[in-house]
Amino acid sequence: MTQASLPTLSLCNNATLRRAARKLGRFYDDMLAPSGLKGTQYGLLYQIHVGDEPAMGAIAEALIMDLSALGHTLKPLVRDGYVETFADKDDRRIKRVRLTALGRAKLEEATKLWSTAQGRFEAMVGKEHAANLRSALDNIAELDFETPAAAPSS
Amino acid sequence: MTQASLPTLSLCNNATLRRAARKLGRFYDDMLAPSGLKGTQYGLLYQIHVGDEPAMGAIAEALIMDLSALGHTLKPLVRDGYVETFADKDDRRIKRVRLTALGRAKLEEATKLWSTAQGRFEAMVGKEHAANLRSALDNIAELDFETPAAAPSS
DNA sequence: ATCAATTAGTGGCATATGCCACTTTCGGCA
DNA sequence: TGCCGAAAGTGGCATATGCCACTAATTGAT
To answer: Do B9 and A50 touch (CB under 8 A)?
Structure first.
């Protein structure tokens, strides 16, 4: 305790979270590399897969991501033929998304790699600890930050 | 339990972490907005601040981010005059970084906003829980994934 | 001294994410 | 029926991150 080695900003919840995300992201990315998918893309394909031809908005909401960001992220997947979109029958504003046969195959292929990554990670931190951590992260994702901002003097 | 509502991919540690990061990131970003800084930039300025004219590599290592990514992220901060770089006296390969007077002022200004964000967040999840979470995240950041890959039949 | 191997960054390219300003559709009300 | 406000996406612009191929500066071994 001679010279407090840089407070490493470990106090900021946001910075700490991002840092861990960078680290873990690279690990999953590396493991998924053989499939040509990034961790994010894998997650997105999976989300589309489990959904019933979900609308863009539904996916964005589930992943807690900006709708336009989702649109951008989806482009390479559409370009590579893993995903296709189509307008909703009843509401032409709504764009639905689904995997193509190629996309389903790719997802299956990547899932094997994902399992290895997931397994390796959980072997290192402990399955239970991982589950607890996910739970804590899900809680954060569920929080309602609703900036009370300038409380409208109702 | 009629129709297992989409497994929401909550099983993937990586996806869960990213999702929480998006959510929390937006919150901190919103709170820091008045300063014109993004959460990432704030963290970077802080890291530079606590370091002793750190080298690019040292910062990248501390934040667990790619060196080139750091270079890119640093650009807008240099452009806006918050940060300046200079070559190391003894090793011209090394580029050191430090805050400008403007940068220090901006960091101070943003720190007030950050405190509010940090406080609001911790009030919602509990100071202790937040500390535990950061600790768990730091552990992940410290993990050694060393892809054993093709074990070189030594 | 000299040259190979290593180290520290840079630049280019691609994906990840957000915000904002629009455009297109809908839905509801006068 | 016609118009206004809400809902769902798109495109453009900017930052966040990574990887890879290179360049410059050092270090180490001969």
So the answer is: yes
Measured in Å, how far apart are chain B's first and last C-alpha atoms? Answer: 53
Question: Does the beta-carbon distance from B125 to A114 stay under 8 Å?
Answer: no
Rounded to whole angstroms, the Cα distance separating B53 from A28 reads 33
Our measurement of CA B75 to C1' D12, in angstroms, reads 21
Look over chain B and give the mean of its residue pLDDT values, rounded to a whole number. Answer: 90
> Which pair of structure tokens corresponds to residue A153?
């003097």
Spatial neighbors of B151 by CB under 8 A, at least 6 apart, are none
Q: Number of Cβ pairs closer than 8 Å across A and B?
A: 171
- Can you give the pLDDT at residue B152? 39
Name the nearest CA neighbour of A46 among A121, A119, A120, A98. Answer: A98
Instruction: Evaluate if the CB of B65 falls below 7 Å from strand D.
Output: yes
Write down the pTM of the prediction.
0.90
